[in-house]
Amino acid sequence: MPIWIQTAALLCVSNLFMTFAWYGHLKTLNGKPWLIAALISWGIALFEYLIMVPANRIGYTELSIGQLKIMQEVITLAIFVPFSVMYMQQPLKLDYLWAGLCLLGAVYFIFRT
């Protein structure tokens, strides 16, 4: 399997954990003290790091640090939008499309040879 696919797949899983760690508590732990939410979020974030670190190490064998970062940002938006709409029940905004188009520009410039 190509390195960039391995990296992207691991970063997708990592981002799913990250998104829940950062934002999931706003829905599920809203009535709990912030310290409880922080400790649970840190626990979730541990799994994110256990996947993200190997993903970046694998990716860095063939990709530059800039390419890894832009890949991460694109994946973050691709995970965050469905999370926001489906899990957090937020409206789908046209702004997500504009942000995605800006990221496509970033992808072009960082991956062009």
From TrEMBL:
Signal peptide: none
UniProt organism field: Stutzerimonas zhaodongensis
Pfam family, one: DMT_6
InterPro entries: DUF486
Positions of transmembrane segments: 7-23, 35-53, 74-90, 96-111
Protein name according to UniProt: DMT family protein
UniProt keyword list: Membrane, Transmembrane, Transmembrane helix
